[in-house]
Here is the input.
Amino acid sequence: MMTTSIQGAFDRSRAQGRAALIPYITAGYPNLDQLEPLVHALENGGADLIEIGIPFSDPLADGPILQKAASHALAQGVKVQQVLDTVAHIKAAVPLLFLTYINLVYRRGIDEFIRVSHEAGISGLIIPDWPWSESARYEDLAYRQGMALIPFAAPTSTNQHLDDIAKGHGFVYTVSVTGVTGVRSRVDVGVEPLVKRIRQHTTLPIAVGFGISTPEQARQTGLVADGVIVGSALVRALMDQPDQAPEVAERFVRALRNAL
Amino acid sequence: MERVKAVPDMKGRFGPFGGQYVPETLIPALNELSAAYGQAKADANFQREWTDLLKDYVGRPTPLRQAYRISKELGFPVYLKREDLNHTGAHKINNTMGQVLLASRMGKTRIIAETGAGQHGVATATAAALFGLKAEVYMGAEDVKRQALNVYRMRLLGAEVHAVNAGTSTLKDATNEAIRDWVTNVRDTFYVIGSVVGPHPYPMMVRDFQSVIGREARRQFRRLTGGFPTHIVAPVGGGSNAMGIFYPFRQDPVRLIGVEAAGEGIDTGHHAATITKAEPGILHGSLSYLLQDEDGQVQPAHSISAGLDYPGVGPEHAYFHHIGRAQYVSITDAEALEAFHHLAEWEGIIPALESAHAVAWVIKNRDSLREQPTQVLINLSGRGDKDVDAVLDYEGGLE
Here is the structure.
C-alpha cells in the first residue's frame, strides 16, 4: 500500500494558510470495529494527518483520559496484530501515524515493527518513551523503508538536541508543557517562544501537542506552529457518547479545523 | 570465570541492557543528574557527609556473623549480613540517604518516590525529614490498603502519600505515576528511585549507594575467616540489596546467587521470577528482562513478599545473568514462609519475607551445598516486623 507523505500534508495545509490538524484516537476505543469509521470521520471533519494509538499496559506519558482509553481497549483483548490488520484495510487519503510505547515495538523487533507498520500503510511512528538518544541509530533504516521516526522537542530540550533532531524526518512533535497528555484550560505562554526556538534549528514542520483541547486553543497554537495535535479532548468527547463515536469525532474535528 | 567489564558505559548500557527509555522532556534532567552524581562521587566532602550519616544516623556498619544453629542444622557455615539492623529496618535507607543528600546538594526542593510495600517510601520519607525536604510518595491503591501501617509511618514522617488507582494499582503503576509527576515537575523535583532500575544513571547510582553492603561484608568476612564465602545469596525483586552485596565481590571467586520469587509456582503464571523467564523488554526507562505477554504488554507479578512483587528487574542483573556472572533461581511463597519460621526459631531473627527467600534457597539446597566445602553468606536485607500481619493472615490467624 502507498503511504502518503507527511511533508505533503504539511505543504497542503500551509498552502491554505493554516496549520495542519492532527487528531489522535486510541485503537480499540470504543472498540476496534470503530477504528475504520473513526478514521474516515476524522478525514471528513478535516484532519490533515491522523495518529492512531496502539494501547499499552503502562502508558507513562499519558494522563488519565488516554490511560483509561488504553485500559478499555486492552480489557477488550485488543492485540497489536489486530490493529495492524485493521489499519491495513483502511483507505485513507491522509497520512496515518502510529503512537505507541517502545516495548511493543521492541517485542516485535524494531526492524520488523517498522516493516509491518509500513505494509499497513503507516507513514510515521511516534514513541514517547523512545528519546532521540536511543532512536537515532534506527532513523536511517526506518527512513529507507518509508517510515519517519517522529522526534520530540520539549520545553526542557537543549539547543544541542534541537540541532540533532534537525537530521530527523516527518515533523517535530513539540510537547507544549513539561507533563503528560491531558486536557488543560489554556495554552501555555511558553509555547510561542519554544516553537520560535525550535525553528532556529530545523526546517522540519513543527506540530504542538499535549493539552490542546478547544477550537480557541487550536487557533492560538496554529498561529505559531505548523501543526496542532489534539488527543485527550477528542477521546474524552468519544467517552461521553461512545455509541455515536464517528459522528462525535467528525463534529469535534470540524470545529477545530474551522478555527484554524 | 569471565572478568566483569566496567559497566555501565557512557550511555548507561550494561552490555545490551540499560539505557534511557523515557520521554524527551526528562533527558536533560537525567543528564543533569549524571553530571551532579559524577561530581558528588568524586567529591571527598560528599562522600564524608554520606559516610557519617550512614555511621551515626543509619547505624552502620551492620554486623556480619555466623548463624551457628542454622550452620549446625545444615552442616556447613552460614553467615548473615544484618541489613535488618539498619534504621527503618532494611537496606533501603543506604540508597535514600545518598539520593536525598544529592538532591539537597543539587538545590532540589521537592522529593518524590514510588513504593510497593512501603519500605522505600518510609526510607525516603525518613531521609527527607532529616534534610527538611517535602516528600511525596506514590503507592498503588491495593498496596495502600494492604500496608496501612507503612502509610501511617510515612505520614508521621511528614510525607504525603498518593494512592494510585491505575492498571493493577501496585508498584509498577505507582512507578508510572511517579514518572508522570517527575515529567511534570522536573525542574524542582528529585525522583528518588528505590531500586537498581529506571533510566541511566539510576541503576548505577543505586548500585553504588548500596555497594556499602558488599564492601563492609567483604572486609568483615575476610577478617572473620581469612577468605571468601563460596556463595553469596540474596533476594532479587528490582535487585538493589543483591546488587549492593554482589558488586564488590564481582571479581572474586564467589558464586553469586540471586533468589527471585516463584510465587505460587513458575508454571502457574503467578510469580515474579523475571530473570528465570529471561524475556527482554523495556519498562520504566531501561531495557532488561520483563514479565510480559506475546505483544509486550506488561504482566502483573505475584509474590507473598511485596518487595519482590515487581515485573521488571535491574539491568545489571540482566547483564550478570547474560554473561553468567550470577546465577538466578527462584523460591515459592510456601518455601519462603517455611524459612521465615526457621530463621525465627533457629536464630531469634524474624526476617523480611524478601530475605526469607534467600534463606529458603540455602535450606532447600543443603544437600548439594554440603557435598563440597561451603561457606554461605546470606544478605538479610530487612526485618520481618512489617510482614508479621500478612503471615498471620496467610496462615489463618491465631489458633
